[in-house]
Amino acid sequence: MWKIAVELARPKNVLLASATVPLGAHLALTGRWSIDHTAIVAMQTASVIFFIAAGNTFNDISDKSIDKLAKPHKPIPSGRISVDTATKLAYCFTLFSFIFMALVAYQISDPIPSIAIWAIASLLMYTYDMGPQTKNAGILGNTAISLMVGAVIIYGAASVSLSTDSLVLYVACVAFFANLAREIIKDCEDMETDEGRNTLPMRIGLEWARAVAYIFILLALIFLYIPHWKGPLEFNDLLYQSPAIVALASLNGPLYRGEDHKAQSQIRIGMLLGLLSFAFLVMKDKLL
Question: Residue 218: which region, alpha, beta or left (left: phi > 0; alpha: psi -120 to 50)?
């Protein structure tokens, strides 16, 4: 049973997403960690791990009919776990996420941001796959997913009671806009198979949807630049962001040629490079 639970959780997806929790704390602390910080952030990371596992399980429940044809090997369509059992498992994941969040909130000086972020993200997660199923509403679902991606970074900073740190907010905006562009491009890539959805490419066409995605990429680049212009980072340090800038700014070519898979993969790489650069820059003086 535990193997099926891990498979539903999608461990690779969980680990990559939850890594932004310590990133948010690292940025807020400017690399000045203590043992207490490490323990608190570990619990906040556990909260996100279970939260994402719950979201992925709800997603598989919602997509059971589609997966029966497209991905019959997955746990639910293959019959290895029933919808009822998977639903109970999803709620168990949610409960564990809440418990870890509550443990953190009990121990930190400013618990309100952590509680608020968890509550809002839970609403976004549940309504994405269940209830109104915002994932079928195109740009609304894209925005919900991207808000959660950006919020995880702030959630990490909230674990050390520094959720309003300017650098953390800028980096969260970079992640939000880059992921929003990626979600739109993924909808371009999947337009022929997205039956029952009302995605942006379906509404305005592939070319216009790609153009909108590139606008969001440019907004991500603006927020990547702002902390070097307004602080707290030095303007000269923008050089360290060059790999991320090149990866994101050069997307106009693949998008113009309709290379959607290449474009969305390049966004993920660019976003990862940007986040790693921010993590390095707050500790640069200590490392160099």
Answer: alpha
